[in-house]
C-alpha cells in the first residue's frame, strides 16, 4: 500500500507538471482554446510530444481515456456497492443490500449504484456533477477525524497496529473544524460564483441537490432501525447476514 500510495503521488503530481511544461500555463488557462476538456488536453499534449497529430493519434488517445474512465467507473461502482453491503451487515442500511449473487457479489447494491450513476449523468456536465457529488464526498473527511479524536479519548488503551502521539487527536479535531469551514462556506460561496462553462450562471442548485442526496441516508437508516429491525425482532431468531468468508 505504501508503494501504491507513492506511485499515485508521483503520477498525479507529474501529469499536471508535464502539461504545464509541454503545453504551457498560459494556454491551459485560456478557455477559448478548449483545453478544459481532458480529451483535448491529452491529444494536444501527445501531438506536441510526438510532433504529429491527426485522427489516428486522436483516436488512440481517446480510446485510452475511455478505457481509463471505464475502469474508474467500475471501481467506483464496486467500491460503493461493498460499502453499502457492509453498512447493511452492520445494521445501518436496509437488509436488501446484504443480498449477494452466486459469485458472492452484492448484485443489488451494484445495480442500485448503476441506476443512480445513470441518473447522475443526466444532471448536466462535469461542473454540475462535481458541484453536487462533492457535497457528500468531502463531508466524509470530517466524521473520520472526529471519530479518531473520540477513539483516542475514550478508548486510549485499545490495541492498534499504529499509534500516533497523543497530541494528534487535537490536531485531528482542528483539521475537522477547518474541513467543515471549507466544506460548508467554500461550497456555498464557490457554487454561487458565475462559471464561464455555464454561460456565467452558478451551480448553487446542484449544491443543494447534493445536500438532499446526503440527507437521504437518514431515511434509509430510519427504515432499517424503525421498520425492519422491529419486524425481524418480533419474528424471533433470524438468519442474520454475516460477512462473506474470504478463505475460499
Describe the fold and architecture:
It is a single chain. This protein is mainly α and 248 residues long. It has a domain at 124-237. The protein is 68% helix and 0% strand. It has nine helices and no strands. Helix 3 crosses helix 4 (55-89). The two termini are 23 Å apart. The mean pLDDT is 83.
Q: Quote the distance from N terminus to C terminus.
A: 23 Å
Major sheet: none
Give the CA-based shape. Answer: globular
SSE class: mainly alpha
* Whole-angstrom Rg: 23 Å
Helix residue percentage: 55-70%
Strand content: under 5%
Q: Count of helices?
A: 9
SSE order = HHHHHHHHH
In short:
It contains nine helices and no strands.
Question: Which helices and strands occur, and which strands form pairs?
Answer:
Layout: H1 2-22, H2 25-28, H3 38-49, H4 55-89, H5 107-121, H6 126-139, H7 141-154, H8 168-190, H9 204-234
Helix pairs in contact: 3-4, 4-5, 6-8, 6-9, 7-8
Task: Kindly list the characteristics that best describe this protein.
248 residues, mainly alpha
